[in-house]
Amino acid sequence: MNTKTTFAFFVQSALSFGIALTGMGVGIAYLPVNAWMRAFLGLGLLYTVTSAFTLAKVIRDQQETASVVQRVDQARLDRILTEHDPFRAPSG
Fold first, then answer.
1. Which residues of 13-46 are buried (b: 16+ CB within 10 A; e: fewer)?
2. How far is the C-alpha of 13 from the C-alpha of 17, rounded, in Å?
3. Which end of the chain has a smaller Cβ tally under 10 Å, C or N?
4. CA distances from 37 to 29, 32, 61 (A)
5. Would you place residue 37 in the very low, low, confident or very high pLDDT band (cuts 50, 70, 90)?
6. d(Cα 25, Cα 10) in Å, to the nearest integer?
7. Which of 22, 59, 58, 57 is nearest to 42 (CA)?
8. How far apart are CA 64 and CA 86, in angstroms?
9. Does residue 63 sit in helix, strand or coil?
10. Rounded to whole angstroms, how far apart are CA atoms 92 and 77?
């Protein structure tokens, strides 16, 4: 199972991320609060973004690992099925 995202989906995702990040950055910059509160909110936004990237990477890694395990299991099953001869006399 080879799933590949389309270029249009990639562009849509990148634009959505950029617009959301820019909007939040501008919103934080123009808040009527002091610099310390803006800095705190900016760091919170940065932490949220990096956490989201980390979570996405961990989920992708788990899916890739599961995919590899499934392919190995399928290869083992295929080998067993090709080696099996239902008409062979039982030995013993």
1. eeeeeeeeeeebeeebeeeeeeeeeeeebeeebe
2. 6
3. C
4. 10, 10, 36
5. very high
6. 22
7. 22
8. 35
9. helix
10. 25
Residue type, 37: M
Contact 52, 62 (CB under 8 A): no
- Token pair of 30, please? 């123009």
Residue type, 30: Y
Collapse the DSSP code of 91 into the 3-class scheme (helix H, G, I; strand E, B; otherwise coil) and give the result. coil
Alpha carbons 67 and 71: distance in angstroms, whole number:
6
Q: Is the pTM of this model over 0.70?
A: no
Residue showing tokens 């099996």:
84
Concatenate the DSSP letters of all residues of 1-16 into one string. Answer: ------HHHHHHHHHH
